[in-house]
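re: ur question from earlier - yeah i can do the single chain one, its not a big deal. heres the input i used so u can compare w yours
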Amino acid sequence: MSNNIDNIIFSKSKSNPTVDTYDALYNLEYYRTNEYLAPLENFVPFIKNCESLCRKSLYYKKYIHYIKEEVGLTACQVLGNVQEVDPSDNLIEMHHGPLLTLFDYCTIITNYLLYNRYKFNEFTVAKMVMGEHYNNRVEVIMVCETVHDLLHSPGGPFVELDQGFGDVYGFLKKYKNGLDSNLIYKINRYYDKSVNIGTQDYKLFEINNFANKMNDSFDFK
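and the output i got, formated as tokens:
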């Protein structure tokens, strides 16, 4: 069954509702499919939309409050002398890392949903990502603004895995089918850099081995 309103065609298909017009080159699907997300020009904006939904979410702000007030991470984890005494000062900011960014978390969950052929859209991914924050499976570090800017710049400071809060290994094991070759390469590079500077972290060793075992298993078929 479909409805037409001012040249807008709305299809109430049970499998995937769509919105279309007579003049459009393509329709808008409610759920995202492998075919839609296959081109990078669709995939990257989709992930960025998921990121944006997370950051604008009330639950995102509440999570930062939880990290500061309940967990007690009110000092910069790189420059320890910078501490937020009054919450209204907002001296300490949340950074996703050091291993995975928010973009990476959204990508892994999107890949996982595609792999398992679930119906989903940006809101589905954002909700799942925020849920993993509250399950403490998203690793974050709390830093001052200056350090935060440097972390987003080439050649920024190296942050060790054990400086973060959150079980990133638990996240990777739960969504293992969402690990693609680019993410595995990123994990390998972080591991190599960690080894080169002399960091001894058994959890990172486990993560690197786990990622490499998953290297040949990622497939949307």
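The CA atoms of residues 25 and 45 lie 19 Å apart. not sure if urs matches, ping me
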